[in-house]
Amino acid sequence: MANSRPAEVQRADALRNRAHILEVAYQALTENPNASLNSIAKRASIGPGTLYRHFPNREALLLAVNSSEIDSLAEKVERSLEEQEPLDAFREWARRSAALIRVKHGLGEALSAAAHQSMTETSYGPVISAINRLLTAAAENGDLRPGADPSDVLLLLGALWRVPAGDAGLRQADRILELIIDALRP
Questions:
Q1: pLDDT tens digits along 117-126
Q2: 45, 104, 110, 161: most buried by Cβ count inside 10 Å?
């Protein structure tokens, strides 16, 4: 019997499934960078075939998770700026990006050198754009000095994802973030 559902409904279902898999995979990989595809499928309450239909191998899933999270991080900048003061939006963004990068670094060993390079290259533009937008808003608000180079700030933020795991590491990351902000003040 042929499938009588319209193609648009099927595509919408596939997009929802993909988004759900990416969300679950990010959570699973955050907890355990070595999580298997089968464990991710089980956690997402789907069959392995569904997962493999969307992501033919582990590397494809890891690249998609990273791309999805970078896109989400970049998209949330404007919303954050509407909901809070620019400096608080910068702090929140820096913490979220550091968390994502820590996951990415944990996954780095699972990626081929070419895939890791591709992931880094595709992430750079949106990340620099987000940092630039946040720095501009904070400078216009008088919180930070104007003209800070986003690529320099990205290098400084690199310290946030090098802290040890756990609560002590997160407290250290917050202290480092405040040092970075102090260095950028007018």
A1: 776 777 888 9
A2: 104
